[in-house]
Amino acid sequence: MSAPLVYLNGQYLDRSDAALSIDERGVYFADGVYEVVRYFNGKAFTLAEHLDRLKRSLDGIDLAWDADAIAAISDELVQRNGLTDARVYWQVTRGSAPRNHVIADDLVPTIYLSAEEAQTLAGDEPLATISAITTIDDRWHNCWIKSLMLLPNTLAKTKAAKAGAGEAIFVRDGRVTEGGATNCFAVFDGELYTHPANRYILEGITRNVVIELAKSLDIPLHEQAFSSADLPGADEVFITGTGTLLAAVTEVDGKPIGEGGAGTITRQLWDAFVDRVRSDCGVG
Ligand code: PLP
């Protein structure tokens, strides 16, 4: 559930008092970008990486705004809401103007942040498991931009939910790209595969942490796309994301993956991920 206070354009407000203009370009055109950042023990995890990606996304849509300011706002929002373990949503939209496709030069961006309580990693948190469906990836070709234009993702995730699954895995030209709100990894013969960070996926911050951990654990890793036809035969599949953290995919399109539980490499990476969070954020 969302925490009571949000940040909007310079003010910390009660959620019910926060309002946007009807002419907001974020509403008309999904003209904006966003980030979701995890806090553990009151500290933002991988803050520099999120800031960096926000800047790349802003550049990607030609929105000039000094993104560095957002870190202090985010910390203050977490504190004002009395949270320690939280998920914080950052959104930068182009601002408000009468509806016109052409972007005017004099727009003032709209900055909105909200926070919600999230799971701690201070105890003995088990690795999550999830089932997934595959679905056609019909998104645009700039998935590296963390754009607000998430209609294909919401439709795909709704399709998954209606099928009783937790995630939709996108397939473009026969290859697995990523999940509706996650990146996707598979293990074949003891080696880890994930789609390369190009324009067809969002380069997940969690993905990159997991890649680093896999390298440090000497798990052979290929940033190479794999065929969706091979997915049911994978030994292990898992997804990563700031919200999900890491979850073992136990079933795809109704077919079990491996033994139908979390595999050895997935568990190894989860343990390493928890250690990394704890040491970075001073948990425990
Ligand atoms: N891919 C998509 C499409 C996403 O929406 C997300 C997160 O929202 C991810 C991947 C995972 O990225 P991150 O680990 O930075 O949260």
Helix/strand layout:
Layout: E1 5-8, E2 11-14, H1 25-29, E3 32-40, E4 43-44, H2 47-60, H3 70-80, E5 86-93, E6 110-117, E7 128-136, H4 151-162, E8 167-172, E9 175-179, E10 183-188, E11 191-194, H5 205-216, E12 221-223, E13 236-241, E14 245-252, E15 255-256, H6 264-281
Parallel strand pairs: 7-8, 7-14, 11-12
Antiparallel strand pairs: 1-2, 1-6, 3-4, 3-5, 5-6, 8-9, 10-11, 10-13, 13-14, 14-15
Residues 36, 153, 178, 181-183, 202, 204-207, 240-242 line the site of pyridoxal-5'-phosphate (PLP).
The distinct ligands, each listed once, are: pyridoxal-5'-phosphate
State the end-to-end distance: 25 Å
> What structural class should be given to the helix and strand makeup?
alpha+beta
Instruction: Work out the helicity level.
Output: 25-40%
Radius of gyration: 19 Å
Mean pLDDT: 97
Number of extended strands: 15
> Count the helices. How many?
6
SSE sequence, one letter per element: EEHEEHHEEEHEEEEHEEEEH
Main sheet attributes: strand count, strand direction, barrel closure? 9 strands, mixed
Q: Quaternary arrangement of the chains shown?
A: single chain
The percentage of residues in β strands lies in 25-35%
Shape: globular
Catalogue the unreliable spans: none
